[in-house]
Design brief:
The chain has 20 helices and five strands. The protein is α+β, with helices and mostly antiparallel strands. Among the domains are: 81 residues, Roll (Ubiquitin-like (UB roll)), CATH 3.10.20; 108 residues, no CATH class; 41 residues, Orthogonal Bundle (Helicase, Ruva Protein, domain 3); 45 residues, Helicase, Ruva Protein, domain 3 (Orthogonal Bundle). A five-stranded mixed beta sheet has the order 2-1-5-3-4. A hairpin with a 4-residue loop joins strand 1 and strand 2. Helix 7 runs antiparallel to helix 11. The longest helix is centred in the middle third of the chain and has 32 residues.
Length: 405
Amino acid sequence: QEEKIFAGKVLRLHVCTMEGAEWLEEVPEDTTVEKLKERCLKHCLPGSLEDPKTVTHHKLIHATSEKVLTDTKTVLEENIQDRDVLLLVKKRAPTLLPKMSDVVAEEKRKQEQKAPDKDAILKATANLPARSVDRSVSHHNMRDFQTELRKILVSLIEVAQKLLALNPDAVELFKKANAMLDEDEEDRVDEIALRQLTEMGFPESRAVKALRLNHMSVTQAMEWLIEHADDPSVDAPLPGSAPAEAPAEGAASSAEAAAGPSSEEGGEEAKDELTEIFKKIRRKREFRPDPRAVIALMEMGFDEKEVVDALRVNNNQQNAACEWLLGDRKPSPEDLDKGIDTNSPLFQAILENPVVQLGLTNPKTLLAFEDMLENPLNSTQWMNDPETGPVMLQISRIFQTLNRT
């Protein structure tokens, strides 16, 4: 009874841990903080007191004052009041400073993995022979090749037209050429790509138009069809896709005129008329700019006409067309219609080649030249053709041979 009478005041304390556990501890005010920690650890970590270091590895913090309580002091000495909140926290081990040897080793490893700078690269490669080609020069040479090839085709077209006009079978040759032109227009669509689009539900005629506008790319054609689904002119025929009946009739009458007169004057008129007819064929091969490239370049502020000119000069290549628009704009669109110097060694070597000579008498070769002139992206098709491929291969070889000398 005396102990109860003289015992200290009992405090009810709210204890929390970092893991979220909460409970009430009732302790006399003369209890030391160390004893209070032991009671708290028994409650939240049973069996932890078997390790004597467990108590020293934890600390109690007064939540209101944020003060760390001293183990040797009592609850009264720490001025803890009834219903105060205490936080039980495990002490963190102090961060060990790295050893100097480890620091040196890590710094050395970073230096070894560091990429060399420009000066180090130049120093290491100073004695190596230069083998790389300047990209700007390579690009310039490629532009020269494309320009010269166009000039060669323009001049060869003129030669082929004259040869076909002088042929006694000019009428039949022209009819054959016109028939091949129409057949080529019909057969140019990739059947597999067309089937993929029609299986998606697109009308066949519309899918054919989309494929021709997008260089037989199924993905781009599908995007074009979706974008123009509500366009009233989506089913309008492409330029040059009209029936060739009228030209054929004109061809027949012109061919009759060519076959009728026997005098030189009549022959000249027939040749002129046949040349005009071949110009009509060429109009069927009008250059078709890539619609996506046109939109992209016009969004940069260029006029539509100059955008089309740029794409025509640069074979529908958007990046090259942009450089042409921003640069000196050479060659000009007018330069594309100029032929090569007929007295030049290059042109003479081409004309003297037997394969080229034989190919120029074939109407299909003329059609190939016309098509490549206006649509360079179709060059692969003609290079793989058994009739026109050998002619193109010989022209390419002669050009490359004379270009090296």
